[in-house]
C-alpha cells in the first residue's frame, strides 16, 4: 500500500525575503504547513498548525478525515506553531523528537492550561514513528529538528518542517533568520535534497526537489563570529536569559516578552529576537546591546 498524503494547511512565513519583503518587519501571521498521511498504521497528522477546533474543521474539509480518526500527531520540532492544535485529537499519540521535547518538559512549569496538558501527553521518539516512517535529523532551525521520511506515490516524501521553509529558501540553500545554526541549516537542506523526491516544507506548499534543486556551487551561509564575553546581536539567547541581570535588562526594553517563548528560542541569536521587535524597539538595538554589556 502506498501511503496517501494530503496538505491540510499551506503555511506562510511572517516575511519572505524572496518576495522583496523587508526582513525586519512582521507582515503575515505565522502558520506552519500541516499534512496528513493515511497509512496502514492509521492516520498521521504532521505539524498541527491551527487552534484545535479550526484545525479539526480544516482537516475534515480538506480530506474527509475526522479528528477522532487521527492515530498519531508528529511535530517536527518544539516551536509552538508546529504543535498548536494537538488538543483536537483525543485518540492520537502526540509525538515529537525527544531532543526537542526535552525543551518543553524542562520548562513545563511555565505552561498552563491546554498547552501544559498537551506537553504532558507528548511522547519523545527517535528512529521511527511507525515502520516505514523514519525520523531524519535536520538540525539548524532548531538543534533537535527531525523530518519525517516516508514512501508515497511520487517517491520519497520528506515532511521537513522548518529545515526547509519553502521552495525559495530551499533553492537558495538558505535557512531562516530564526535559526539556531545557519551553517547547519544549509547542511540539512543538502541532506534533504539527497534523500527526498518531494518536500513538504515548514511554511509553504509541497514541491519537487528536482524542480528546485540549488546550484552545487551555492555556498553555505555561516553565523557571524561573536567575541567571548561580549554580548552582540549574534549572542545566543541562552547566554542572556539565564543571567537574571541581563534578562531584567532585556525585559525593560521588551516588557511583553513571554518567558516560555524565550526558553523555546534559547538557541537562536539575539539578532532573531531583534528582527521580531516593533520598529521603535529595533531602533534601540545599540542601546540594548550597550546595556547588556555594562
What does it look like?
This protein is an alpha/beta fold and 294 residues long. Helices cover 31% and strands 18% of the residues. The protein contains twelve helices and eleven strands. It is globular. The relative contact order is 0.12. The model has no long low-confidence stretch (mean pLDDT 95).
Poorly predicted runs of 5 or more residues: none
Indicate the percent of residues in helices. Answer: 25-40%
Query: How far is the first residue's CA from the last residue's CA?
Result: 63 Å
Strand order across the largest sheet: 1-2-3-4-5-6
Binned strand content: 15-25%
The biggest beta sheet is recorded as: 6 strands, mixed
Rg to the nearest angstrom? Answer: 19 Å
Sequence-ordered SSE layout with sheet pairings:
Elements: E1 4-9, E2 34-39, E3 42-46, H1 52-63, E4 70-74, E5 93-97, H2 98-106, H3 113-121, E6 123-125, E7 134-137, E8 146-152, E9 155-161, H4 167-172, H5 182-195, E10 198-201, E11 207-208, H6 209-212, H7 238-241, H8 244-253, H9 259-264, H10 270-275, H11 279-282, H12 285-292
Parallel strand pairs: 3-4, 4-5, 5-6, 9-10
Antiparallel strand pairs: 1-2, 2-3, 7-8, 8-9, 10-11
Can you tag this structure with a few keywords?
294 residues, alpha/beta, six-stranded mixed β-sheet, five-stranded mixed β-sheet, 12 helices, 18% strand
Quick rundown:
The protein has 294 residues and is α/β, with parallel strands linked by helices. It has helices spanning 52-63, 98-106, 113-121, 167-172, 182-195, 209-212, 238-241, 244-253, 259-264, 270-275, 279-282, 285-292; strands spanning 4-9, 34-39, 42-46, 70-74, 93-97, 123-125, 134-137, 146-152, 155-161, 198-201, 207-208.
Amino acid at each position: 500500500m502506498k501511503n496517501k498524503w494530503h496538505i491540510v494547511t499551506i503555511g506562510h512565513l511572517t516575511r519572505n525575503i524572496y518576495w522583496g519583503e523587508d526582513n525586519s518587519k512582521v507582515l503575515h501571521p505565522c502558520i506552519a504547513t500541516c499534512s496528513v498521511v493515511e497509512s496502514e498504521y492509521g492516520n498521521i497528522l504532521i505539524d498541527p498548525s491551527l487552534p484545535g477546533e479550526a484545525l479539526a474543521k480544516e482537516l475534515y474539509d480538506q480530506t474527509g478525515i475526522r479528528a477522532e480518526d487521527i492515530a498519531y500527531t508528529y511535530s517536527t520540532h518544539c516551536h509552538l506553531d508546529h504543535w498548536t492544535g494537538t488538543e483536537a485529537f483525543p485518540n492520537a499519540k502526540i509525538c515529537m523528537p525527544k531532543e526537542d521535547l526535552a525543551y518543553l518538559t524542562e520548562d513545563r512549569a511555565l505552561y498552563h492550561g491546554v498547552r501544559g496538558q498537551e506537553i504532558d501527553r507528548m511522547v519523545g521518539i527517535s528512529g521511527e514513528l511507525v515502520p516505514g516512517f523514519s525520523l531524519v535529523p535536520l538540525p539548524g532551525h532548531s538543534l533537535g529538528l527531525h523530518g519525517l521520511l516516508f514512501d508515497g506515490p511520487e517517491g520519497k516524501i520528506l515532511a521537513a518542517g522548518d529545515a526547509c521553509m519553502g521552495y525559495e529558501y530551499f533553492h537558495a540553500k538558505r535557512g531562516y533568520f530564526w535559526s539556531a545554526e545557519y551553517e547547519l541549516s544549509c547542511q540539512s537542506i543538502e541532506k534533504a535534497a539527497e534523500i527526498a523526491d518531494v518536500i513538504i516544507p515548514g511554511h509553504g506548499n509541497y514541491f519537487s526537489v528536482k524542480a528546485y534543486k540549488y546550484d552545487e556551487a551555492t555556498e553555505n551561509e555561516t553565523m557571524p563570529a561573536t567575541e567571548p564575553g561580549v554580548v552582540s546581536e549574534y549572542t545566543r539567547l541562552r547566554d542572556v536569559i539565564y543571567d537574571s541581570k541581563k534578562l531584567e535588562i532585556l525585559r525593560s526594553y521588551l516588557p511583553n516578552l513571554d518567558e516560555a517563548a524565550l526558553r523555546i528560542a534559547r538557541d537562536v541569536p539575539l539578532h532573531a529576537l531583534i528582527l521580531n521587535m516593533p520598529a521603535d524597539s529595533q531602533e534601540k538595538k545599540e542601546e540594548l546591546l550597550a546595556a547588556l554589556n555594562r
